Amino acid sequence: MLKSLGQKIRLYRNIAGISQKKLAEKLDVSQHHLGCIERGESAPSMSLTIKICEILDMHPAVLFSAVSIKRPYLCSSELQNEPDILHMLPVPRHGMWMVDIQSGLEIWTKSLTRMMSLKPSKKACFNSFVKHIHDNDRKLFTDFYQALRSITIPEPVLLRTVTDHDSCRHLHVRADLHPGFENNSVMASMTFMDLTESKELYAVLRYNSEQVEAIVQERTGSLDLALKEKQQEIDLRDRAEKKAREKSNQLQMVLSSVPAVFYTFHPSIGRMEWHSLRMKNIIGISLQDLKNNPMLWHESIHPDDLPVVKQAIQKARKGKQLNVEYRLKGKDGQWRWLQDRATPLRDDRWDFYLAGVAINVSEQKQVQEALLILSKEYETIFNHSQNTFFLIDVDEQDRCTFQRLNSQEEALTGLTTETVRGKTPVQALGEELGLQVEKNYQRCIKEKRVVSYEETLHLPAGKRTWLTKLAPVMEGGKVVKIVGSGLDITDRKNAEDNLQKKEERLKLITSTSYDWEYWVKPDGSLEFCSPSCKRITGYSVDDFLRDPDLIQSIVHPEDAHFWNEHACMATSYQGKAELSFRIVARSGQVAWIEHKCVAVVGPDSAYLGRRVSNRDVTMRVNMEHEMRQENERLRRLLKDNGIAYG
User: Fold this and answer.
1) Is 3.30.450.20 the CATH classification of the domain at 383-488?
2) Which of 71, 164, 231, 470 would you call most buried, defined as having the most Cβ atoms within 10 angstroms of its Cβ?
3) Cβ(198)–Cβ(175) under 8 Å?
4) pTM of the predicted model as reported, rounded to 2 decimal places
């Protein structure tokens, strides 16, 4: 212990640049005694130890610690002891109070006496020291001091002191215990650190920090405002760009969906620009082909149509709209009809050019040609058919007048086109018969659909029974004409009673029954079944709910394979499906069913089964069969007479 203490004194003496002789003079001891202390041969007294620490500017704890601590605190050995100038000197920031626990010897450093405004000559005494501690902190320091005297290191404390100059200072006090110079002796040290200037500096720093923060907030507010304005500008630009992209996408969708080619044509320089995403599909020529050969469009126009196109361009030069139809040959060798419409314009140099659109109207042309052929066929059938045909004009007030009769109609009725043209049914046939005929015509107009019916008429050629069909001709959602056809069924009077009974039975069924509806779940069971099943099949709702396979079991054996294929398909197909088949009712009667079904899908797109609508179409099927037989009979009759029948 003594050897280590001496080595540290010698080390700090050398650092301070003081010789052993000079240090001995300052300590008021002999050089020999100081040498013995540095060699560890003798121990310095407590007062001498304090003097050595003050002269060498070192903390006393350095002498007693296990490691070397270089200048952890500043001492005030440079201070003079004159009490008249004591209050003028700066207050030191550190001070020491050493206590020998065994002997009770206590020593204050000079820096502590100045810090507490104590007289240097006053001996270290707890009572005199505690007088300078703030009233509220005296008990705290007393407990701190007593714990240290009981050889216990207390926790550091913060104290307030009041000096003779009525100034309040803030001290941080910590304590430590060290081995003494004598065997089993213990030395206690209390280190006092003045934090007053630190608190004042903290207050200044806090004020400056608040000022800086205010400036930063002000600058930040300006920056935020600028950033907000910039963000608004960016958002506005983004919205404009988004809107432009949407417009561009919409235009692309329009260009991709419209079967047309948009172009600009400068006849003076022969330049043409095209705008279309489906050019090859529309005209049979790709955009690359036109770029490779700008005159390809002109060269591909049908020779017979080229003069018409040139004439239309010349008229456009005079300010007239271009509207022309011509044929264009595609790369695949096919001719396509184009309807070309363009507007004459002038550019910045006042040069003439056309901005137009070319639409593929090949299908319309095909339809027109088909209509022309159909019109010719219609005239042939109308005038040479064994069936009767008549045309009825319908005016704005739904007033019906005869327009034309075919030759067969004239022969079988005794009427002629000349005698009935422009006349109403009442005018042409008389009031009673005319009103009867007019009633059916008005029904066709009101329902706007094909109506068929049987009628018995007393006409100039005699009494005949007809199967008449009226077909409306629509324009703008309104019936403008009625095409009527009649089949003379007088020769089938022998079967009239039977047909009448069937008709009455059909009317009875129609008036007392309705479609059979049910819902098949994915597992094959029925969710519900309408009571009409009883009317159609003879089986009750409970029969079908108990046995979902009952539906399959009543299918006619000859149609079972159609039903099985449809059932397999329906389990995986989620669209609409239709099927006509026969069933064997409980009574053993065979009935034709018109079956329609559609997938039932829940809000979450889950497959819930199929909704089925079964309609009894037995009578219709039988009637169609009879009609086919009658038509076949008429066809053979016409064929035997050498007359073509379409």
Assistant:
1) yes
2) 470
3) no
4) 0.31
Phi/psi-derived region of residue 92, left when phi > 0, alpha when psi is between -120 and 50, beta in every other case = beta
Q: Can you tell me the mean pLDDT for 542-571? A: 87
Q: What are phi and psi of 320, to 5 degrees?
A: -90, 150
Cα 341 from chain centre: 41
Which strand ranges, in their side-by-side order, compose the sheet holding 106-108?
106-108, 94-100, 186-194, 168-179, 157-162
Q: Which helix (H) or strand (E) holds 266?
A: strand 260-266
Q: For position 82, what pLDDT does the model report?
A: 33
Q: How confident is the model over 435-483, as pLDDT tens digits?
A: 999 999 999 999 999 999 988 888 888 888 888 999 999 998 899 999 9
Q: Which fold has domain 510-626?
A: Beta-Lactamase (3.30.450)
Segment 168-217, tens digit of pLDDT: 788 889 888 877 766 677 888 888 888 776 665 566 566 667 777 788 78
Q: How many CB atoms lie within 10 A of CB 550?
A: 16
- Comparing CA positions, the residue from 598, 558, 613, 553 lying closest to residue 582 is 558
Residues 325, 340 contacting (CB under 8 angstroms): yes
pLDDT in tens, 301-333: 899 998 988 888 888 888 888 888 889 888 888
Q: Which CATH code for domain 258-360? A: 3.30.450.20
Residue 72 has pLDDT above 50, yes or no: no
- Cα→Cα distances 25→22, 38, 52, 367, 619, Å: 5, 15, 12, 134, 145
Q: Do domains 2-81+91-194 and 258-360 have the same CATH topology?
A: yes
CB atoms within 10 A of CB 364: 13
User: To 10 degrees, what angle do helices 31-39 and 20-27 make?
Assistant: 110
Does 249 have pLDDT greater than 90?
Answer: no
Could you give the CA distance from residue 196 to residue 167 in angstroms, rounded to a whole number?
10
Q: How far is CA 294 from CA 260, 265, 272, 332, in A?
A: 19, 11, 7, 18
Q: What is the rounded CA–CA span in Å between residue 407 and residue 389? A: 8
Q: What is the DSSP letter of 525?
A: -
Q: State the helix-helix crossing angle for 46-55 and 20-27, rounded to 10 degrees.
A: 120
Amino acid in the structure at residue 45? S
pLDDT of residue 134: 87
Enter the tokens of residue 195: 């934090």
Three-state DSSP at 555 gives strand
Give the residue among 275, 277, 270 at the shortest CA–CA distance from 296: 270
- Written as six digits, the tokens of 288 are 């690359």
Q: How far apart are CA 441 and CA 394, in angstroms?
A: 10
H helices then E strands: how many in the chain? 24, 20
CA distance 447 to 358: 40
User: What residues contact 397, with CB distance under 8 A and at least 6 apart?
Assistant: none
Q: Structural domain boundaries of the chain?
A: 2-81+91-194, 258-360, 383-488, 510-626
**Cα of 86 vs its chain's centroid, Å:** 82
